[in-house]
Amino acid sequence: xxxxxxxxxxxxxxxxxxxxxxxxxxxxxxxxxxxxxxxxxxxxxxxxxxxxxxxxxxxxxxxxxxxxxxxxxxxxxxxxxxxxxxxxxxxxxxxxxxxxxxxxxxxxxxxxxxxxxxxxxxxxxxxxxxxxxxxxxxxxxx
Length: 142
Hints:
Elements: H1 5-33, H2 48-72, H3 76-98, H4 105-121, H5 124-127, H6 136-141
Helix pairs in contact: 1-2, 2-3, 3-4
């Protein structure tokens, strides 16, 4: 089964985003717990909601890696999971804003990229790869 250029680009971009989010999430957890310091500072003073969102973001990043593998292998669960992953990324950014994170260009770009990937995943040429083929039973039952 060949993979379209669009699907390849989506999977590579989603994988890159997941890896970068995972690395930054691990760094933030280390700073948040005081296990690491940057410029003699740590993030131990963050509010509990922001700390929770960092941990949630780390879990979402792991989900992103898993579903990217499924997307790359053209598995339906990878496509569905990718839509869920992108939606969770948007929700996590929104919750961070509600918890007090300042609105930055990075947040806007992250949300725009997620929305773009959702739109790309819903393109007919991409979606058709993950649409189950009708079976003989489907033809009989109508």
